[in-house]
Design brief:
By secondary structure, the protein is an alpha/beta fold. It has helices spanning about 5-20, 65-80, 100-110, 110-125, 145-155, 195-210, 235-250; strands at about 25-35, 35-45, 55-60, 80-85, 130-140, 160-165, 185-190, 215-225.
Length: about 260
Amino acid sequence: MSFARFFATVVSSTILLTGAALAEIKTESFDYKQGDTTLEGFIAYDDAKTGKRPGVLIFPQWTGLSDHERDAARNLAKLGYVAMVADVYGKGVRPAPPKDSGVEMGKYLSNRPLLRSRVKAGFETFSKRPEINASKIAVIGYCFGGTAALEAGRDGLPAAAFVTFHGVLANPTPADAKNFKAPVLVLHGAEDAVVTAKEVEEFQAEMKAAKADLEFNTYSGAPHGFTQAGNYFNAAAARRSWVAMQDLFKETLDQ
């Protein structure tokens, strides 16, 4: 089952259970800037809704903005949020895995100030949109995008929640965990061969030292990339992690 079909089923079931009407979802791509670099955003929203609404900013995996994140944005829009997929690499930079995407991702993992600049540009662009309640923005990410979501918190961006799906947790500046201003939800596969047990231990230690509001969920049998279609996909982990994210949003965005 593909990511799109799986989450469409989950979201449709949620809508039917709550008795809500099906949303009329609109999407658009647009350009924005970080310094001299042009970045490409993608936004999804229910055009039947009016007024300022909570938003979810999404950071993509190591290949850059893809259908995986666009589908997530559409499904979040069906839940009533305005969702934007941000860009880290730059418009048109969509490296093929594993070699090219590994090299491109490495540029940002080894240069966290640059990564934070790209993250901040996405956050500020999103928060200025007229339909967004800037005090009710969650930042989420997948794989490399999970690192980006964590860097948003480490940089002190004023989000209402931070969520990482099978994200890279390594942090060269652990003291920056003190800058998280909102709850952090980590959704991690027990069989993740990319994120080592030592990395998990160090991450949890730095968050504990900072007294950060951390929830760390581990899903048995789930590998790295468990929300992705294909060999890595784990239906139970994908479903449960999506529900865990929604539970956090009910607490932080919907109040």
